[in-house]
C-alpha cells in the first residue's frame, strides 16, 4: 500500500467559527490526504463578526516545531499557507519552503475581503504577503487580496474580462507560477473563479451567485483546491472542483443569516470531495 500524500497546512486555529485549520483538517483528510499542521496563532473565534476574541501569536512555537521536524526527515507533498499571525511569519514560511524543497507551495494570501483588510492587519501587510507569493507554485487570492498586492483598484460587483485578466497577469508578475483568483463575477448573478497558469492559459468557472456573506468559504475553497492539486489535478480542474464544493457548502447553510459568522456546513460536502477525487 502506497503512503498517503501529506499536506502541511500553515494556518491559525480559530477555536469557534469554522475557518482556517478547523476547515483544512477535515476537508484535506476527507480527500484521503494526511493533513499535518503548523499553527500560526490561536484565537477563541475568528476576527470577522465577533468582538472580544482572544489571540495568541505562535511565532516562537513555529520555530520550535519546524526545528524538530528537521530531525525527522519528513516527506511533504504540499505546503499550504493561509492566515498568518504576524508579518514576521512570512519569513518563517519562506524558510519552510526552503527546508522542504520538493514540496509544492500553495499560498492563500489570507488578509482581506470586500475591499478591506481584516482587522488584525495593518497597511504594510499586503507587501509582506506579496513577498510570500513570489515563491509559490499556486496563489489563491480573492479580488481584494489581489488588488492590495498589485496596487490595482478594487472593483465591487461584476467585472469585465479585461479587468480580471489584468489582475491575473499582475498576480503572476509577483513571481507566482500559477494563480487562481476567487470571487470573480463576469456576469450578473454568477460567481466563481478564474485561473492563469504558467503556460499562459486562462480559465473561468462560475455558478449561480447565492446572496449573503458566508464566512470561511475562502478556506473551504482553498482546502478543496489544495486536495485536488495534491492528488494530481490541473489548476483548472482543481478550481472547478473547489467552486463546486464551496457552493454546495453554502447551499447547505442558507436561510439562517444569524449563523453565517459560524461558517458554512462544509461537513455535508466531505463525501462529495472524496468521491470527486477517488
Ligand atoms: O477565513 C479567513 C480567516 C482566518 N483566520 C482568521 C480570520 C479569518 C477571517 O476573518 O479572522 C483568524
Give a verbal description of the structure:
Helices cover 38% and strands 22% of the residues. It is an alpha/beta fold and 278 residues long. It has a single domain (6-268), classed as Ribokinase (UDP-N-acetylmuramoyl-L-alanine:D-glutamate ligase, 3-Layer(aba) Sandwich). It has a nine-stranded mixed beta sheet, with helices on both faces. Strands 6-7 form a two-stranded antiparallel sheet. It is globular, with a radius of gyration of 17 Å. The mean pLDDT is 97. The structure holds 3-hydroxy-5-(hydroxymethyl)-2-methylisonicotinaldehyde (PXL).
Index terms:
278 residues, 38% helix, 9-stranded mixed β-sheet, 9 helices, alpha/beta, binds 3-hydroxy-5-(hydroxymethyl)-2-methylisonicotinaldehyde
Which helices and strands appear, and what pairs or packs with what?
Elements: E1 6-16, H1 20-30, E2 34-45, E3 55-57, H2 59-70, E4 78-81, H3 88-99, E5 104-107, E6 112-113, E7 116-117, H4 125-134, E8 138-139, H5 143-150, H6 161-173, E9 178-184, E10 190-196, E11 202-208, H7 217-230, H8 235-251, H9 270-277
Parallel strand pairs: 1-2, 1-4, 4-5, 5-8, 8-9
Antiparallel strand pairs: 2-3, 6-7, 9-10, 10-11
